[in-house]
Amino acid sequence: MDTATHDVVVIGAGPVGENIADRVVQGGLSAAIVERELVGGECSYWACMPTKALLRSEAVLRAARRVPGAREAVTGNLDVAAVLRRRDSFASDWRDDGQVSWLAQAGIPLYRGQGRIAADRVVEVTGEDGVRTSLTARHAVVVATGSGALVPDVEGLPAARPWTSREAVAANEVPGRLAIIGGGVVASEMATAFASLGASVTLLARDGVLPLAEPFVGELVIESLQDAAVSVRLGAEAGSVKRADDGTVHITLTDGEQVEADELLVAVGRTPNTGDIGLDRVGLAPGAWLTVDDTLRVVGDDGAPIGDGWLYAAGDVNRRVLLTHQGKYQARAVGDVIVARAKGEAVDDGEWGRHVATADKRAVPQVIFTEPEIASVGLTAASAEAAGLRIRVVDYDLGALAGSALHAEGYRGDARMVVDEDRSVIVGFTLAGPDVAELLHAATIAVVGEVPLDRLWHAVPAFPTVSEVWLRLLEAYGR
Ligand SMILES: Cc1cc2nc3c(=O)[nH]c(=O)nc-3n(C[C@H](O)[C@H](O)[C@H](O)COP(=O)(O)OP(=O)(O)OC[C@H]3O[C@@H](n4cnc5c(N)ncnc54)[C@H](O)[C@@H]3O)c2cc1C
Ligand SMILES: NC(=O)c1ccc[n+]([C@@H]2O[C@H](COP(=O)([O-])OP(=O)(O)OC[C@H]3O[C@@H](n4cnc5c(N)ncnc54)[C@H](O)[C@@H]3O)[C@@H](O)[C@H]2O)c1
């Protein structure tokens, strides 16, 4: 067996693994990375990038149709083949040459194959040809193996060959009828995309649509899905599934009703890619999410770091936040803390310190690219109350702004600011409306910066923009 030694070995070259290795190398240590599929991970080929490419063309068309003058210039419908071609190009045609070259120029050796922890600080890589390589890490091993689609335990489901997000995102043909199990982010975005591409979509949303967001979010998204002829079945639960010989999928709901479709997408959450990475070698259960401390070191059931603290986990696999940008934020923290510990430097692990991912707990930004777009950061009113905060909620109708009226005829949307009354700072902010994605970062800065409301009065939004909602919310709150 070939052997090699590096300061740090990262298992998984998704967005998080790549950033960890880069950070470590920037800090003056050496790092190697192990990847069993495509360098770039889920985000590049089957998630963030291709999904947003599927959604973007219709969003542009919709925006043009909302503005007289532009509306008249829209003389045709969505060109589905062109949308799929653009999606292919944003998925780099499912080739990772570009990212492999990036690793090479960043000085990060790539080992292709399945990585497994074989012993303390040792990762064994098994290539597709069965050839094994043993990698020893002088300082740390980082698990960044991400997550895969969860297929729920519904009778007949695996045999019915359902789509997961991967098959939906990479589809070359649009099914005539698409049923979707789930009502979360993937289900809502894919219902929006496939309806726009011409599928007749049925959404089986057992627990509601985007149930973890502020309540007005689900209401607006449901309304717009229904406008797009999506059949939204709230409370509907699949009891059993069967694919007939002619390919039709028959879904029997728990109330006995039947739903038929040409394809069935399962979008009910994720499962960690830890089933076969050697967790048993370090006393952890294969297939489990990895629990980490605030510096992203993997901890056991007793809360203590594994071994002497050589094992770290970042990104989806630690279940803190399943988002690319937040995983990359963890990557910067974990890369820097490994370097600091290796060099014997002080570890800055206090709240908002350089070596911790404090924002994971209360300042996570997310954009959901449905119609309307949903942009949120921090706590919802419900989660702030559950956290025991004394809050005040301020809502504002986004459509009532001069900027919104100019942006689009009939602009509809809502904004909510959640204020921690004891500290007079914003702890949560949600916007739902056309093109609100780019408004989000101001809210993220206000939440992370814990900017007092008194000071926010001096942050004047330009007229006439949708950002004037900031002023309206402050006025509604009172000075
Ligand atoms: C449909 C969909 C759309 C999404 N859209 C967005 C979005 O718009 N914005 C956003 O922020 N997030 C989005 N996400 C979430 C985002 O994709 C993930 O949070 C992100 O990919 C996590 O990055 P990661 O590096 O932790 O894991 P991954 O991207 O899953 O990468 C892990 C890598 O590790 C490799 N690997 C796993 N096990 C091993 C092993 N044993 N040995 C070697 N290699 C291994 C895998 O092959 C993979 O390449 C979306 C997710 C889905 C499913
Ligand atoms: N734009 C974005 O930021 C974006 C886009 C897509 C995905 N993602 C991320 O990817 C992750 C996965 O997304 P997801 O939509 O698969 O998960 P999710 O957790 O967002 O939603 C899953 C939904 O399925 C429901 N559900 C669970 N079990 C069910 C069952 N047996 N039957 C019916 N419904 C069931 C849940 O109540 C939940 O609403 C999320 O964490 C999300 O943040 C992000």
Automatic annotation (TrEMBL):
Where in this chain does the record put each FAD/NAD(P)-binding domain?
A: 6-328
Q: Which InterPro entries match?
A: Class-I_Pyr_Nuc-Dis_Oxidored, FAD/NAD-bd_sf, FAD/NAD-binding_dom, FAD/NAD-linked_Rdtase_dimer_sf, Pyr_nuc-diS_OxRdtase, Pyr_nucl-diS_OxRdtase_dimer
A Pfam short name: Pyr_redox_dim
Q: Which UniProt keywords apply?
A: FAD, Flavoprotein, NAD
Carries keyword NAD? yes
Family designation: Belongs to the class-I pyridine nucleotide-disulfide oxidoreductase family.
Q: What is this protein called?
A: NAD(P)/FAD-dependent oxidoreductase
This chain's source organism reads Amycolatopsis ultiminotia
Source lineage: Bacteria, Bacillati, Actinomycetota, Actinomycetes, Pseudonocardiales
